[in-house]
Every structure is written in C-alpha cells, then in structure tokens.
Structure of Aspartate carbamoyltransferase:
Amino acid sequence: MPADAPSEFALPDGVHPFPHKHLTGIAGLQPWEIGFLLNEAEQWIALNRATAKHDDRLAGLTQINAFFENSTRTLLSFEIAGKRLGMDVINMHAAQSSVKKGETLLDTTATLNAMKPDVIVIRHDASGAVGLIADKVDCPVLNAGDGRHEHPTQALLDALTIRRRVGRINGTVVTICGDVLHSRVARSNILLLGTLGAEVRVVAPPTLLPPAVERMGVKAYTDFDAALEGAEVVMMLRLQLERMDGAFVPSPREYHHFYGLTRERLALAAKDALVMHPGPMNRGIEITSDVADDIQQSAITEQVEMGVAVRMACLDVLTRSRRGVEGWA
Ligand code: ASP
C-alpha cells in the first residue's frame, strides 16, 4: 500500500491477507486483499529484469492453462510466470482439444482435474464459465478472462502500473474510453479502481455503455473531450467486434473521429497523463500510433511487463496453503 493510502485500505489486525481459494474476479475482494497482491507482485519486477529469472519456489507443481478463447499476451504471460516460479506448465488450446469433438465443459473440467494439477488458469468466452469450473475442481483456479465478465489479473496489472507511474491509486482520475459494454477489462478495472478509491469515468457512444453503468460508482460520458478534462490516466479499450451481434458503431472511421485517442485529444487530459491499453490494439481506430508509441506517456508495454509480475504473485499466493507455507491458512 502506498503511504498516502487511507487506513481502511490497510490489512486489519488478525485478518488473513488473502483468504480465497480462487481468483475468479475482483468483485468481492477487500481493498487490503488487492493491495496485498500488488505488494506481492513488486518483488517479481526486479527478478524479471535480471538475467537469471528463476525462483523455483513452485517447483514440482503443475499448472494447466486451459484456454477456450484466443489469447497472445495473457497466455504467454501466465506461461512465463509459472515457469519462472519453477512449475511444469501445460497449455491446453481448445481449438486442438476434444471440445471440438463436442465434449462438454464439465467433462473437460473433470478430465483436467483428474490429472491432479495444482493450479488451473482458464480463459473462456462465456461469462461465468470460470466460476462454474472453479466449483468443480480440487485446485485453485485463476480467471484469465471469461466473456464480458471479469479479467482480474488485467485489472491488477493495470493497478500496479498506475501505482508505480502515478504514485497512488486513491483519488486518481481515470478515464476509460471505448467498448465498455463488451469489455471484461473495463468491468474488472471499474471494480478494482473504485475499491481503491480512484475517480473512474467511462466514456463511449451510448450503444457501447452498459445500462445504468453509474450504479458501478462511475461517471458516464458520451463526450470524450469532456471525459478527458483533468484525467490523470486514459485507458483505451478495443472495439470487441467478436462480441457484437449487430452494428454498435456506424463505422470504424466515425468511431475514431469521436472516440479515438489522438495527440490533440490527449492534450485535453492532465499534463503528462498516462496512456494505457490492455491490447491487442486497433491502431488508427481507438488510438493513433504516435500516442500508443509515445515513450513518455504510454505505459502499454509496461502493462505487459507488470502482467508477468502480477501473475507470478497470484500463482504464488493461491498455491501457498497447498504448499504448506508457514502461517498460511
Ligand atoms: N486482452 C484483453 C481481453 O482479453 C482485451 C481485449 O481483448 O481487447 O479482454
């Protein structure tokens, strides 16, 4: 926790820092539990920057990455994280699995569980699928993104990036722009940043804003310029075309005109505002290349770097009780 964090964010006396078996979402996490995971991640940043990148505290454990939906950075990041901690890491791609032969999700789950993994990392295109699987297996489950629901490690890595670059999360003005309706990244970030006291704004065309989004504690805008005023962090989202059934925006060109982050628009935000994007980016649609590649203001590659550290922390923390780590409930 940064020094300026209010005391309600500190771990209360006698409370377990992370009493959960799984990490299926940010919803329901206490501020100190989020802070604990972020603090745990800090130690891995230096290791990841060193030449020798091994800490074999999870040696002998088996990690299965079961990905039922495409991924580049999240899958790689979880694989690297597990390997740096010494685990045997196995990737299951649904496209090459019995899922294609019609096997049900629960049968696939039972098969994975019978192989006695120590942690399962799951990505699925159905919202809630990861929670369903978590109920059926013996080991901890980590959600690597389920439909429009949650992507908790993305929100954690975004928070770690903000905390390191801005110096705090509490009170920080964060504008999230784009396809909020279909984005699990937006949802997990809104939950996390709100829990840690940030002022969160969301901005999108009316068709891409969830109904009653203000109930999540955010301010909703349809005018990007207005939403940028005073923003210290500008988080851009990809148009999730694969989740759209119908036309939600008239054309990518028009979308860019109103909601694309250009250098001129960025000048409306706070001085030196941090630019973020979870990737993959649609250059020229939600963000221009000069903004995305700006070495001062863009934190996009740093987000990827923080992703490995955050995932190492989550894998370590979730497997502590099975490893009999002293003092761990
Ligand atoms: N990579 C992120 C996700 O899996 C964001 C995106 O796909 O746009 O949700």
